[in-house]
From TrEMBL:
Keyword terms: Signal
Domain of life: Bacteria
Ranges where the Glycosyl hydrolase-like domain occurs: 58-374
InterPro entries attached to this UniProt entry: Divisome_Glycosyl_Hydrolase, GH, GHL10
Classification via Pfam families: GHL10
UniProt keyword Disulfide bond, yes or no: no
Protein name: Glycosyl hydrolase-like 10 domain-containing protein
Region (Disordered): 14-45
Amino acid sequence: MIALLLYSCAGSKTTTSAPKPLPSDGASSPSASIPHPPADRPTSVEEVLPPFAAPKRELRGIWVATVANIDWPSSGNISFAQQQKEFIEILDFYAQRNFNAVFVQVRAAGDAFYPSKYAPWSSFLTGQQGKAPSTSIDPLHWMIKACHERGMEFHAWLNPYRATFNLDTKILSPKHDYFLHPDWMVTYAAKRYYNPGLPAVREHINKVIKELAENYDLDGIHFDDYFYPYKVNGKEFDDKAAFQRYGKGLSLADWRRQSVDLLIQEVSQSIKTTKPWISFGVSPFGVWRNQTQDKRGSATSAGQTNYDDLYADPLVWMKNGWVDYIAPQIYWSVNHPAAPYETLAKWWAQNSYGLPVYIGHSAYKVRADTDQSWQSSFELANQVALSRQIPHIEGNIFFRARSLMNANKDVADLLLQNVYTVPALPPAINDNSPVFKELKPEVTETKITATGISLRLDNAYLAQELVLFGYNASGKWELLEQLPVEEAEAGEWYHFAHSMAPNYGFLALGFLGNYGEMSQLYRWKQR
């Protein structure tokens, strides 16, 4: 069992619509004992400021599943105002626990949670597929803005190949691809799928991706583990005709893997030629191959694998740089006999070709699985603590949002108290911009207010976000709040609604660019 230091309840990230909890005695908070430079140091203002050391970045994400309304919205038949309220409830719950990224399922089954030329409106949003929401607000634009207001990244999560969630065609819109392109469909185990082997399908999915990238201020585009469907005994995925036409001498398995590879490669190119700062990543099934199947595989005995059953080869995607990160779904406990968490976390980190690894965690198993390890409220916190000890693992994503709310709220609170005690910036996609590194905020005026601190800046328009840091009682800089540049008040004023900010002896302000890269810091001592 992994030993963890248990902290008392700590402060959480500020949000614009909910009060920030005050730090308790166990939290890292400002006080009269904040370290100051030695008296014999030079007296110039710049030299007496503590040197800035950026806090470690870490992705802390949550998947918000929309399929069958399992996370959000609770129903497609409630008002959009009620759906907004539910979404804000999810965001505030996780923002207050220092999460910094949300992965929202915007395409669940050949549908869309946004106005699209290539898919009908989702019934999970509006109650009837193809029916527009009864609002003039673009739901996706609104969700992105709500996330950014809370300093959270928004990643658009898509199921590229699942076309329907069941075989009932009466519930489908006439604009669904089942009717428009029946030749693209393969029926398998009570669902319909786009045939991955058809070039027309790849072209279509690329149009879907390009539309999203062009029209929305996304931080990322994300695919999950559904490529070729998980195998069901006695069922055959009937793609013989496409294989005969496009196989070109390959085995069926190799041709299927090549078809998926081509999709990943082409989607990556579409994103990078449209908005290269949008990250593209995949959360594949947790086992690439077992060691008994391939000496490069993991010391596991999984019943199905990415390579052999889903025809997905994430090693190829990482080796060729087609993805910006990988987020393997390691949905087993630390002590699982067939697929131990630690074994798989290390395997993915060692085989990531230097790319960031974000571990996918099965929050849905807490107190709901036959593996007794999940009865422990510390299983997830222990997994996060363990992953932090492994090079190349740069964060964690939890499936799914509602799993840690309500009955399992105590488990989310333990994550805050043990591993997410202070806020963190997500990792940068690219932090090697020489131009941006020369940029420095020009703060011309500061004001302490009843709710935080306001700053006047002359050059904020050059940045994507503002980030405020405070120098704490432990002699370390910590992230206090992120603020989108468009949140300016009266032109050049920006208000950081962090009630404790005025109590820090030293503050620092930085800019973030499109790629998450950091500018130089403007530091000052508070009077």
